[in-house]
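Support request, please re-run this one:
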Amino acid sequence: MRVGIPGLTDSVSYNLSQVVIVYFINQISSEALAARTYCINVIMFVILFCISFSQGGSILVGRLVGQQRHQKAYELGNYVFRISFMVTLTISAVLALMGRTILGVFTDNQEIIALGCWVLIIDFLAEIGRSCNIFAVGTLRATGDVFYPIVIGIIFQWTVAVGLSYFLGISLGYGLVGIWICFALDENIRGIILLCRWRSGKWKDKGFVKTKSI
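Re-run finished. Output below.
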């Protein structure tokens, strides 16, 4: 319950924020909505790699924390993060470079392709923060530090991802490109804050199981 309910809150908040942002994109144009749909489906392959590495690492980190082997948990977490970060950025860079070819498989509409190419380029910057964010959220949750990531997530999802997206994308007229810049800002700000939390070691006294130090 201590892990599941906070995790549910975070997921619900994120998905609701995405629904609101899709509403904003729908006001821009049908081409913007189509470009967003194509890009999200392609980007999901990048995110899946990051999630997979982070989930596997968090299981091992949680086990080490349960044994009170905090230094080992910290070293393992950093090792998993480095691998996840490199793989994620490599795949994202390939997508950014091959954007026109990839999007050309789905449509011949040049406006959609042009928008999608810009989105994939900006998303490379978003993946820097997203890889930090996904790793830190999963790993901190595994150590028992469940509430801090949720508070940070809710604050920035609704102020930066939603609020700034409306301002930059709708009010100032930068459209889908402006909204994706806000995605990148949201992911990077949260990623930096949560990575600092991980490196601070404040999670060491948050474990669910208290055992004799090993």
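The two ends are 27 Å apart (CA to CA). The mean pLDDT is 91.
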